Amino acid sequence: MKISFHFIVSVALCFVVGVAHADSLDSLAQFLKSTRSWRADFVQVVTAPAKEGRPLRPKTSSGVFAFIRPNVFRFDYSKPYVQNIVADGQLLWLFDTDLNQVTVRNQAQTLGSTPAALIASAQDIASLSKEFALKAAPSDEGLDWVVGCWARAWPCGWRLNRVNRTAAFCGGHRASAKPPSHA
């Protein structure tokens, strides 16, 4: 299975969660300031532009994400395919179970300022705001929303659940995305 690496690393930003604050941006700021390590289940939904005459087809993935600051993280995708991504601060390993193949890359060169690199290293909201325009959005279904627009014009949103540490990511391929209904 071939997955665009940009889609994989984008899911990292959905894992910001905090304690009860005035809004989700305050929660995000508190999370970045106080959290050294974290683990959560995730759901990632990526919607690429539709081909001519065809409807949009969202692609949903899920699994577990964990990180230890700075720059160490792990994605364990369980659906729709088993895949593991591990970064140790120097190297990034991508293990595709279906292909029984491991790809190893230089972490800094591969990730640069992608969401995965930023969330694993950002110590405050100012660091994150250099790459994203962040906006608090109303809570929906018991989840807090932070809507972010990547400097590369890749709109995305994050649902943050304080209770059971679950998160959802909604994003699109470059400038085409289906943002949350309240974004």
Describe what this molecule looks like in 3D.
By secondary structure, this protein is an alpha+beta fold. The chain has one domain: outer membrane lipoprotein receptor (LolB), chain A. Helix content is 19%, strand content 43%. The protein has 5 helices and 10 strands, in the order H-H-E-E-E-E-E-E-H-H-H-E-E-E-E. It has helices spanning 5-10, 24-34, 107-111, 115-121, 125-129, and strands at 37-47, 58-68, 72-79, 83-88, 91-96, 101-106, 132-140, 143-150, 155-160, 166-172. A 10-stranded mixed sheet has the order 6-5-4-3-2-1-10-9-8-7. The longest helix is centred in the N-terminal third of the chain and has 11 residues, at 24-34.
Summarize the structure.
This protein has 183 residues and is of the alpha+beta class. Helix content is 19%, strand content 43%. The protein has a single domain, classed as outer membrane lipoprotein receptor (LolB), chain A (Clam), CATH 2.50.20.
Strand percentage lies at 35-45%
Number of domains: 1
Helix content: 10-25%
For the largest sheet, list the strands in their spatial order: 6-5-4-3-2-1-10-9-8-7
Specify the structural class. Answer: alpha+beta
Total beta strands: 10
Please specify the SSE layout and strand pairing.
Elements: H1 5-10, H2 24-34, E1 37-47, E2 58-68, E3 72-79, E4 83-88, E5 91-96, E6 101-106, H3 107-111, H4 115-121, H5 125-129, E7 132-140, E8 143-150, E9 155-160, E10 166-172
Parallel strand pairs: 1-10
Antiparallel strand pairs: 1-2, 2-3, 3-4, 4-5, 5-6, 7-8, 8-9, 9-10
